Amino acid sequence: MGIRNQTQVVEFVFLGFSGIPNGHTYLFLAFLAIYLVTLLGNLMIFVMIQLDSSLHTPMYYFLSHLSCLDICISSVTVPKILVNFLRQRQTISYNQCMTQMFFLISFTGVEGGLLAVMAYDRYAAICKPLHYSHLINAKVSTLLAYATWLWGFVDSAIHTTLSSMLDFCGVNQIPHIFCDVPPLLKISCSDAHINEMTVRIASFFMAGVPSLFIILSYVFILSSILKIRSTTGKGKAFSTCASHLIVVIIYFGNALLNYNHPSGGYSLATETFFSTMYCIITPMLNPLIYSLRNKEVKGALNKAVESWKKSKHVHSIS
Question: What sign has the CA pseudo-torsion 64, 66, 70, 75?
Fold first, then answer.
């Protein structure tokens, strides 16, 4: 079946930007700017966490993984979009499509699990402060982080394998801007019952379970914060969760809009907008949220800037 697919459909055509035939130059510049901001912002946070010893804690260890993931998610989709804008042909080969889908599902799945792990870290820090060092130590942090990576890649391997067995009967126009399971199921002429059932089961475990875990964690966190008598203490406790909570709402909100379509489906323009928000805009926003709202990250950034200024001054004198 997989061999027949490749002889019938050599490449796919993305229809996502077909409604803007004369604006590809502007779209190229916009997506390039977004990609550069995403790379620089996430790389800055990742490097700061590695270099600043005050950030060598479980919370920032998980944040470094989140920054790495955002770079990966953006890099799976945006470079191909940029190349297509330059070529003025919105196409992708069959093998590239399967590869893009595999890594996209992997990285987005890992991010959902990692956000749940970060919620557990905040729960342990606020609700169980005396036991925090036992609940979240270096060994536990490493195990939890890499378990989420394994979780995401196993899920993706299942989806990609099933998708590679689909037959498209010569239809190669995808109403999307990148390769993903739902758009491929739309154009497939195979019996996709198993694929659809797998998507529903995976949605529960990859999105439903982490979401429920995060909600429960924040119910306990909020309960503990309300018991703090000091207003300053309440503010400090909540500030440690605010950035993570904003990222969670943006990520799972966009995931919900991207994968849970109404029965009539979205228009192509709406589909393109939600897909862009989910896999292209969100990875750019995460470092901005953490750098603007987090005092420790802002402090580390200020120290890095001051250190750079001093070294530049010494170099200019010498």
Answer: positive
Residue at token pair 């429960």 = 216
Which of 38, 53, 114 is closest to 281 using CA atoms? 38
Contact 145, 61 (CB under 8 A): yes
Q: Helix, strand or coil for residue 173?
A: strand
Beta-sheet strands, E only, within the chain: 11-14, 91-93, 173-174
pTM: 0.89
Architecture of domain 2-306: Up-down Bundle (1.20)
pLDDT band at 2 (very low <50, low <70, confident <90, very high): very low
* Closest alpha carbon to 222 in 241, 244, 196: 241
Question: With contact defined as beta carbons under 8 Å apart, do 66 and 111 qualify?
Answer: yes
Q: Could you give the CA distance from residue 272 to residue 159 in angstroms, rounded to a whole number?
A: 22
| Domain residue extents for the chain | 2-306
What pLDDT does 52 receive?
85
d(C-alpha 233, C-alpha 236), whole Å: 5
Amino acid identity at 191: D
34: Cα separation from own chain's centroid: 15
